[in-house]
Amino acid sequence: MDSQKRYSMEAQVMHWNIRYGSIEKCYEKPDGIATLSYLMQVVGCSGIPDNPALSPITEKLSEIKRTGSSVNITPGGNGQSPIDLIDKIARPMRFPPLILNGHWLKDGNATLFNNGVTAQIFLSGDRIPSTVSGGPLMNDEYEFYDAHFLWGEEDCRGAEHTINGTWFSMECHMVHWNRRYLTFDECLKHRDGLCILAYLFLVQSGSCQWNNIKFERISENLKNIQNAGSETKIPSNSLSWMRIATECPSYYTYHGSYNLDDVDNPECAQWIVFPAITPIRHCQVGSIYRLHDCD
């Protein structure tokens, strides 16, 4: 290591030896404290996004200006979503096959709706219910409620979930409700009320000529719902783009929250996040960036 090299900041994570019963007694012992030191370097490049893993801390620093003051950096309860999915701490598990039924059929109707916050997709009409079962869902069957998208201001940082600290361009949530509870609202009251399938998108470079043809059934219709409250009919099989990502051999799953707003996020959802990235071009999400909200 270069002994002359200096860094912008250092974080020290202290651990105390539980053999001594309390941290106070550890201060008196040569093996009482173990400290992990992490060196940080500011990168002066506008093209590199902020480190998402540090955001829960850095965004709260302005609230602890006084010496000895503190602030809670944990949002809500212990099972809030989204999270950073980290392979090093993920636990491999075997589940029965995950079964999706009816999502990409050509029967019935599909509607694309701008609710003032996001773009939603609803399925209706003469079609069998679209369901998900198996996998970590035990013996329950969950019925499709809606699909909605989450994006940011830049192609490199729009998805909610990250994988090993890596951001993605956009994310789609397929929300399903547990049919055992009869209504969607009732599902919000139960730990196993919802199953949410999460799909990650990555915008391809400008030199890439590949186009996600199946996603065009959605992207080509976004111009028709630019204003909040507007809706348009789309092909009934507009969710067929999700099929390839769903067929990946493994996925991440955890219990978390259904994010209604910034205050009340009930921890009622089993999340299934597919790591197979869905590629799209910037022009396919350009209309999403231009959607108007309620304001």
Explain this structure.
- This is Carbonic anhydrase-related protein.
- Belongs to the alpha-carbonic anhydrase family.
- One of its GO terms (molecular function) is zinc ion binding.
- InterPro entries: CA_dom, CA_dom_sf, Carbonic_anhydrase_a-class.
- The protein has 295 residues and is mainly beta.
- It has a single domain (84-290), classed as Alpha carbonic anhydrase (Carbonic Anhydrase II, Roll).
- 10% of the residues lie in helices and 31% in strands.
- The protein has six helices and 14 strands.
- It is globular and about 75 Å long.
Secondary structure topology:
Blueprint: E1 9-16, H1 23-26, E2 33-40, H2 55-58, E3 84-85, E4 98-101, E5 109-114, E6 119-124, E7 131-134, E8 141-151, E9 162-163, E10 170-178, H3 184-187, E11 194-203, H4 216-219, E12 231-234, H5 242-246, E13 252-256, E14 269-280, H6 282-289
Parallel strand pairs: 3-9, 11-14
Antiparallel strand pairs: 1-2, 4-7, 5-6, 5-12, 6-8, 7-8, 8-10, 10-11, 13-14
Total of DSSP H or I helical runs spanning 4+ residues: 6
CATH fold-level topology: Carbonic Anhydrase II
Number of strands: 14
CATH class category label: Alpha Beta
Say which CATH homologous superfamily is assigned. Answer: Alpha carbonic anhydrase
Query: In the CATH classification, which architecture applies?
Result: Roll
Strand content: 25-35%
Q: Any idea what the radius of gyration is?
A: 23 Å
Mean pLDDT: 83
Largest sheet: 10 strands, mixed
Distance between the termini: 53 Å
Task: Look at the helices and sheets and give the structural class.
Answer: mainly beta
Number of domains: 1
